[in-house]
């Protein structure tokens, strides 16, 4: 095991790319492992790869057992976030979803166990067990296998149940090349973009489903803190501890962007049901000393200017 060596599967994504930046500043040797099929690499990530000797990128697929073994070899910490995402967009892709989210995870788990990693950090299944979609079902199996590797084989796992994370650099659509109307989109990014363009904000169902929304800066801090002995074997929630309806969020976005947008209600997507989720941050505080610092309005103040700039318009906040 090489001290300070960190490997991140799905490392070029919204969350881990920003965690990587913090770890590089701390002197860690960070390798991103990603096939980049769902999205392009962020310009910020590409620039750092060109500038930093302790930052590396390996293009690969978690289904490739040999490639996984090679990249994880000697790692001290593994962050496993690689997955086929999309709660409603993986129907008719069940086999591929299971191959990536379950078989790929088994490859990462086994390689991590074999190399003797000190910490294995992962996001368990979202609290959406009533949803019957390929993604949620595969994430359930992934989570149970991870628990098995900890309890049976002694792999030092650390689970972060991240609530709805939003912020600058979030992608409204994961893969624009394959997106079909009616498929899932990242709500916060989509709502902000629509509001800035004075277009309707699409809301599935009656909009009274509620979720906990946590800003990326708080989650980056949590993931930097996560690899520690005190957290091994734990599964912790990370959110602000408040559940807000989708309708309310859309209204706040419209207000803060000074938009003329209206909410457009659409039928619930296949396999989804109305749920209400909220984080219990007590374990995160106990084991990591972590608490959220950014409420929704402050988070939006930090987020809206990014999307305004991407659209080439002046930010309203």
TrEMBL record:
Top-level taxon of origin: Bacteria
All copies of domain NAD-dependent epimerase/dehydratase, residue ranges: 6-122, 132-226
Protein name as catalogued: Putative epimerase/dehydratase PtdF
Coiled coil feature spans: none
Species, as recorded: Desulfotignum phosphitoxidans DSM 13687
Family: Belongs to the NAD(P)-dependent epimerase/dehydratase family.
């Amino acid at each position: 095991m090489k001290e300070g060596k960190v490997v991140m599967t799905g490392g070029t994504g919204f969350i881990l790319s920003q965690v990587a930046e913090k770890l590089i500043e701390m002197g860690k040797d960070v390798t991103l492992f990603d096939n980049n099929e769902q999205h392009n690499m962020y310009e910020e990530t590409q620039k750092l790869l060109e500038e930093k000797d302790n930052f590396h990128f390996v293009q690969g697929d978690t289904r490739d057992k040999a490639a996984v073994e090679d990249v994880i070899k000697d790692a001290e910490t593994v962050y496993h976030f690689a997955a086929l995402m999309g709660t409603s967009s993986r129907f008719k892709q069940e086999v591929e979803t299971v191959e990536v989210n379950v078989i790929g995870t088994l490859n990462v788990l086994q390689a991590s166990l074999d190399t003797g990693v000190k910490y294995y950090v992962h996001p368990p299944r979202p609290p959406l067990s009533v949803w019957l979609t390929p993604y949620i079902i595969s994430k359930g199996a992934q989570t149970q296998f991870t628990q098995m590797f900890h309890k049976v084989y002694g792999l030092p796992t650390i689970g972060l149940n991240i609530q709805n994370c939003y912020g600058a650099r979030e992608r409204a659509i994961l893969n624009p090349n394959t997106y079909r109307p009616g498929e899932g989109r990242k709500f916060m990014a989509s709502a902000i973009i629509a509001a800035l363009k004075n277009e309707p904000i699409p809301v599935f169902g009656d909009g009274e489903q509620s979720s906990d929304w946590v800003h990326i800066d708080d989650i980056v801090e949590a993931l930097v803190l996560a690899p520690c002995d005190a957290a091994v074997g734990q599964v912790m929630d990370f959110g602000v501890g408040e559940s807000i309806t989708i309708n309310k969020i859309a209204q706040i976005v419209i207000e803060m962007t000074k938009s003329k947008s209206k909410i457009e209600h659409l039928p619930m997507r296949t396999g989804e049901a109305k749920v209400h989720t909220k984080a219990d941050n007590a374990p995160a505080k106990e084991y990591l000393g972590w608490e959220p610092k950014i409420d929704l309005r402050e988070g939006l103040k930090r987020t809206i200017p990014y999307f305004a700039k991407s659209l080439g318009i002046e930010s309203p906040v």
